Structures are given as C-alpha cells and as structure tokens.
Amino acid sequence: MSERFEDDDIEFIYWGDGNKPPVKYVEEEVKNERHYRKVYKQSKRNVRKKYVILKREVFNWVKLIACAIFLAFIISNFIIINALVPSSSMEPTIMEGDRMIGFRLAYIFDEVERGDIIIFKYPDDHSQKFVKRVVGMPGEYIEIINGMVYISNSEDEEYKTQLPEDYLTVMPEGNMDKIRIPEGSYFVMGDNRNDSEDSRYWNDQFVSEDEILGEAIFVYWPLWPQVID
Questions:
Q1: Mean per-residue pLDDT for 54-67?
Q2: What's the pTM?
Q3: Is residue 70 located within the same domain as residue 115?
Q4: Residue 203, strand partner residues
Q5: Which of 2, 89, 121, 196 is catalytic?
C-alpha cells in the first residue's frame, strides 16, 4: 500500500516500506547516472582519439628523423666529404682551420687530372685523410731541382719539362732525384711547398687510385663559400 503526501515543491510517493527512496529521486539518480556514463564514455573516446593522434604525430616525427639520419648517412658516405684542414700545407689555396666539402663521385665518370686537389687516405696510415694537389701522373718521371718540378715520359734528360705552377706564391726549395710514378698512382704535393709533408717524404710515396676519396670542391668555413682551384 502506498502513501502519498505533498510538499511545497515535490510530490513524494512511498511504496509500503517507508525506508525506500522517493520514486522521483530514483528517476533523477538514474538520469544522472546515465548522463555520467555518457560523459565518461565520451571522455574515453576523446582521450583515445587524442592518444591516436599523438601516436600518429610521434610516429611521423620518428619516421622523419630516421629518414633524415639515413639521408645524411648516404650523403656523407657516398656523395660528399666534410673535412677540416689541420695544417698550413695547402696555403694560400686552403688555409689552416678551413672546413671544406669534397665530392666523392668526381672520379666515377672522369679521370684525375694534374692540378686537381684531392682528398685521399694517407698512404702510410689509412686512418688519416690528407688533402694535396696532384703534380705527377701515372707512368711519368718526376724530379725536383732547386724547388722546380720537372716532368718527363722517359728517363731521357732531353725531354723533361718544367711544370708551370701558377698557384705557388712562395719560391719552393729543395731537390729530389728522378723517380718513376707507378701506373695507377699519383705524386702529390702541398701548395705551401716549403711546409708540406707529401709524396717527397712519405715511406709509401704515391697515392693509388683506390686511396682517392674525392675531389676538394669548396671551402665553406670560416669565410664565405669559395671554390677551390
């Protein structure tokens, strides 16, 4: 049996047991619970959506960074050489402390020419990289008299020619007996001829084709970029 009574604002109905809550109160609680569940589910969906978006963004950034690292690896190991010149042996063409770029593919489809400035593995220690100018070509005879370089294709003294070296700014000194450059190898020297450890002094005097890493292209630091010639 139910009892009914009225308050100023709400009509309450009790069913038998007076300990049971009002019906309208229960209805409001049910509505609130449904609303909270709806809000909770929507919040979960929003959180899940934000998580998916964040995960996608993180993945895209990781992918971008990985591609950049891979590209940098390919460029630095197969296309260019980034080198620091630690000595004055190539001055004034390349100054001590200059940073320069070399091109690894320079001699894939082209031949090394006299006068080229090359980056190569030091013949006496392949862990070191050197930068010098190509002076003597494969198969030639080379000698130095009073600092001047003489080139010939035979041992006959009549056919030797003094090598023009317009890039030298200081009169070179010293002498070197005539030697023959092996096939597939080059005789290299620094432009600062009086302060350069090069083919004149090494135990293994010549730079082989396999030891050449690339051609020096330009200096990019500390001056404005300048082409190496």
A1: 90
A2: 0.74
A3: no
A4: none
A5: 89
